[in-house]
Amino acid sequence: MKLKHLEMTLQRVGGFVRPRAALEQYQTPAPLAARLLYHALMKGDIEGKSVCDLGSGTGVLAIGAALLGAATVRGIEIDRNAVDAADANAAIIGVDVEFIVADVQDAALPGRVGTCDTVIMNPPFGAQRAHADRPFIDLALVTAPVTYGIFNAGSAQFIETYTAGRAEIYEKVGGVFPIRRTFSFHKKDVQDIEVEILRLTSSQYQSPMA
Ligand code: SAH
After folding, report:
1. Which of 53, 84, 152, 167 sits 20 to 30 Å CA-CA off 14?
2. Strands 190-202 and 167-180
3. What is the pTM of this model?
4. Residues 101-132: pLDDT tens digits?
5. Which of these, 137, 117, 116, lies nearest to 198 by C-alpha position?
């Protein structure tokens, strides 16, 4: 599937019905989602791989991974309503994704979910709660050898410090995340947030085969 086609298909993924500010529920816009996924595809991290989407929301990243030929895709999401929306979206697009209701901070989660070849995620940026992205990074590093995440522009340095000795940032791709007016505290109709897509390789990941 070509990048443009992926982007067009992902435009059809429905959004959050009642987005919750505290959970920073912002759906990744199709062009940005497609960009992350295509980048990961070119790196050989999607096709034929088991892919996990942490904080899968309405499923745009997970569904995109399935469209690009991932062998299996699982989404982890705390909000049952979002999981219901994601299930409906996967059915409409016609892909097979398993969405699981769970908290990434649940210590039992790695045992329950197991490992994946690749993690993809758009974690909360921590605008509502400082460091909200940390439990996502922690879980990602034990879940998969490679993680692609969307972060606020300028985060790379903080993430490098936070993951020192556990991961390396191998690549950084810039992008823009247009956030539409969603919550009452939003002042503009659309606010462009500069973001970066980071590819992290983990030294904490232990292969189940090892
Ligand atoms: N991945 C989706 C959603 C991004 S918004 C997309 O790219 O469009 C971040 C998502 O993380 C929200 O759906 C939110 O409900 C979820 N989330 C926030 N805290 C969480 C937690 N502790 N455990 C699991 N999911 C969480």
Report:
1. 152
2. antiparallel
3. 0.95
4. 999 999 999 888 889 999 999 999 877 778 89
5. 137
